[in-house]
């Protein structure tokens, strides 16, 4: 296991090496003589992820973070959600470098088991849930070019969001340009992948009858390339649009998303020997079986808000569709999905005993309907092969139907939250949420020899939370909370049974967690922001995934008896005249307490997929619109299976970017040049938990040089 002191020395050493390479002293001297502007003092962070009116993080009893992309470490490619949450402790991003598999996102270990997409973490976009009612979140279709901020709650937040809320990541779209029209083009090239985007936005004081101020934003992105590994071609096009307006003091917004990814090849995971030999290799079985996916997705949403502050009322309606064609080694999976839902939230403020008293209440409803087929994968058969029952039509990839079923998941939740404030000193809050998630399966693949596997399950949960904030100083707070969370199995996890049976697994239970947390957050000396949290959590029936023996690529799930999580998270950021610097550290001691599989007893073993130590640091230097920034990441070794017999080694990587980010002008050209993994380290950035065929390791990207260019024009400046 990597010593944390050694890891931090590596981080600091990387920063020192970086400084030496670019002559820090010369850059600082130039800044002092040529740029007399002073550093802007830090201000308290305001967040809206708490489902209340926008509040200062100093007033809330949560571990909170808010990131504005490119603000502290510029030059982001916006290709992965991991770039946006870099430097937030407690959040683990495992880049899988696999176009067919989403980045794995875990908050305090919740979500580390995910085989694809995001599990255990609630993901939102402008208040609209990207997370489905069963708890899974495909994030391949997220448009990050139009993202303005990212907010995160670390820890159990089920009292606010319900199912699969071990943490919350909320993305807010950037505001339309203040001028009537602005056009921005951006392009990236590196690692055999190219991406181009075009965005137009604007706003104006249009006042015609009941219509008030309005704005718009349209963003289109195209990605294409061969990927960082063999057999990792990808091609995707996304379009995101939003139109905002005000009608008689009601703020309205319409959003639309369209995503088309016809090619996303799946190189699979590697053995330890393959990883050491060549990290660009792919699983030969995935090539033989043409493992890949093709996705089309769209969504339309309407949002409305009236009032301000504590008396705000807001609501939303949304609907969407997704089609998936996903050949895998064990079968070809085809899904046609429809989703729709809405939410309503209202707040009010009064006094109780002479003290300010705030109330918030809301309801959420969401429905997911899937038509799912499994076909035999006949990709490995020659065109001249004789017809069989399994593959009746030679030369065709899709063979006989193995599964044909309809799946419906309905989720409803209602919550209330109360806050009582003793001005300038204490603020207490309590909340309670009730959720009901119903799974219904209708089997369409029945015959005299194949019985009807239809069935349904309803899972309920009551999730309380209580918290206290002590405003020690105007810009420094201490907080504590006790909270609970629950997580149902997803519909895929319920139907992928270990013994191969069809229908819903009636024995797989939801995971339930209780957490106690204390922390502090604040600003020191106007230029230093500090956050720290200490927590303990106990989970019952933790959901654990594993590869089914003899069925390559097929995952099933089971419950561990009890698990215990103990953690420490710390974050320090500094903003100066010369630039910015920051560091984050996460200590995660997560273990099974009671867990047996057959005769094997795994009690005391670490929960796989989560490193004990994780650190990140960045340093950005600026002068006359130019910048150079470096970021370092490190993680201790991580267990890849429940038995703790296989580990991915510890690793440390360094990245460097340099470019120009001029002040807002009528036109701008911003070049960027960068290098990922400067020292070309070979490492596993993600692991497949409890894999078969010894294929546990998903390699991190090697040394990669990339260039980017952004050009923007604003013909008419906003009038002030």
What does this structure look like?
With 720 residues, the chain is mostly beta strands. The chain has one domain (4-713): TonB-dependent receptor, beta-barrel domain (Maltoporin, Chain A, Beta Barrel), CATH 2.40.170. The protein has 7 helices and 39 strands. The chain has a 22-stranded antiparallel β-barrel. The longest helix is centred in the N-terminal third of the chain and has 19 residues, at 4-22. The radius of gyration is 25 Å and the shape is globular. The relative contact order is 0.15.
Coarse morphology: globular
Write down the CATH topology.
Maltoporin, Chain A
How many DSSP helices? 7
Instruction: Kindly report how far apart the N and C termini lie.
Output: 58 Å
Q: In which range does the helix fraction lie?
A: under 10%
The rounded Rg comes to: 25 Å
- Average residue-wise pLDDT: 88
- Main sheet specs: 22 strands, antiparallel, barrel
Q: Spell out the CATH superfamily.
A: TonB-dependent receptor, beta-barrel domain
Number of strands: 39
Overall structural class, as computed from helix and strand content, comes to mainly beta
**Which architecture per CATH?**
Beta Barrel
Q: Low-confidence stretches at least 5 residues in length (pLDDT < 50)?
A: 1-39
Q: What portion of residues belong to β-strands?
A: over 45%
């Amino acid at each position: 296991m990597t010593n944390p002191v050694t890891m931090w020395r590596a981080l600091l050493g990387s920063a020192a090496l970086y400084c030496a390479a670019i002559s820090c002293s010369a850059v600082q001297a130039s800044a002092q003589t040529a740029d007399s502007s002073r550093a802007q003092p830090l201000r308290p962070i305001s967040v809206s992820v708490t489902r209340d009116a926008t509040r200062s993080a100093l007033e809330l009893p949560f571990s909170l973070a808010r990131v504005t992309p490119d603000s502290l470490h510029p030059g982001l490619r916006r290709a992965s959600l991991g770039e946006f949450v870099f430097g937030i402790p407690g959040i683990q991003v495992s880049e899988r470098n696999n176009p067919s598999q989403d980045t794995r996102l875990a908050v305090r270990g919740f979500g580390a088991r995910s085989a694809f997409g995001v599990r255990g973490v609630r993901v939102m976009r402008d208040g609209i849930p990207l997370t489905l009612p069963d708890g899974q979140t495909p994030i391949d279709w997220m448009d990050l070019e139009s993202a303005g901020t990212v907010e995160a709650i670390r820890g159990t937040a089920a009292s606010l969001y319900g199912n699969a809320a071990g943490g919350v990541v909320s993305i807010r779209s950037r505001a339309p340009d203040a001028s009537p029209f602005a056009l921005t083009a951006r392009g990236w090239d590196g690692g055999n992948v190219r991406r181009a985007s075009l965005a137009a936005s604007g706003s104006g004081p249009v006042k015609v009858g009941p219509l008030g101020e309005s704005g718009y934003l349209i963003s289109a992105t195209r990605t294409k390339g061969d990927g960082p590994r063999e057999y990792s071609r990808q091609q995707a096009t996304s379009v995101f649009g939003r139109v905002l307006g005000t009608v008689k003091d009601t703020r309205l917004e319409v959003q639309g998303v369209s995503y088309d990814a016809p090619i996303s090849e799946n190189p699979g995971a590697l053995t330890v020997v393959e990883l050491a030999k060549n990290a660009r290799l792919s699983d030969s079985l995935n090539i033989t079986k043409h493992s890949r996916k093709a996705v089309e997705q769209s969504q339309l949403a309407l949002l409305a808000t009236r009032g301000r502050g504590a008396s705000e009322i807001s609501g939303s309606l949304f609907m969407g569709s997704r089609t998936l064609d996903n050949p895998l080694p064990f079968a070809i999976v085809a899904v046609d999905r429809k989703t729709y839902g809405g939410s309503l939230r209202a707040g009010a403020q009064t006094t109780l005993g002479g003290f300010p008293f705030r109330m918030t209440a809301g309801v959420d409803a969401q429905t997911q309907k899937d038509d799912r087929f499994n076909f035999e994968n006949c990709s490995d058969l020659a065109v001249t092969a004789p017809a069989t029952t399994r593959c009746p039509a030679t030369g065709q990839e899709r063979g006989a139907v193995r599964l044909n079923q309809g799946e419906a998941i309905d989720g409803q939740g209602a919550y209330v939250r109360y806050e009582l404030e003793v001005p300038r000193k204490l603020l207490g809050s309590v909340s309670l949420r009730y959720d009901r998630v119903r799974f219904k399966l209708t089997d369409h693949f029945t015959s005299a020899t194949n019985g009807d596997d239809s069935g349904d399950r309803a899972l309920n949960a009551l999730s309380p939370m209580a918290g206290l904030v002590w405003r020690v100083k105007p810009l420094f707070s201490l907080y504590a909370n006790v909270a609970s969370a629950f997580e149902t199995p997803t519909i895929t996890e319920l139907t992928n049974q270990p013994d191969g049976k069809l229908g819903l697994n009636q024995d797989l239970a939801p995971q339930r967690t209780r957490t106690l947390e204390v922390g502090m957050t604040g600003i020191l000396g106007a230029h230093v922001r500090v956050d720290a949290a200490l927590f303990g959590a106990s989970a019952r029936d933790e959901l654990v995934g594993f590869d089914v023996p003899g069925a390559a690529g097929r995952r099933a799930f089971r419950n561990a008896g009890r698990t215990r999580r103990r953690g420490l998270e710390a974050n320090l950021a500094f903003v100066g005249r010369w630039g910015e610097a920051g560091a984050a550290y996460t200590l995660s001691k997560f273990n099974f307490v009671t867990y047996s599989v057959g005769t094997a007893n795994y009690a005391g073993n670490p929960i796989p997929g989560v490193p004990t130590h994780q650190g990140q640091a960045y340093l950005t230097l600026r002068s006359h619109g130019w910048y150079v920034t470096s970021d370092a990441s490190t993680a201790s070794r991580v267990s890849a299976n429940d038995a703790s017999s296989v580990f991915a080694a510890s690793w440390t990587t360094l990245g460097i970017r340099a470019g120009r980010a001029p002040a807002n002008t009528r036109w701008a050209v911003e070049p960027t040049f960068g290098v990922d993994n400067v020292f070309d380290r070979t490492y596993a950035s993600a692991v497949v938990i409890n894999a078969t065929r010894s294929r546990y390791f998903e390699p991190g990207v090697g040394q990669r040089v990339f260039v980017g260019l952004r050009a923007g024009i604003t013909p008419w400046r906003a009038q002030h």
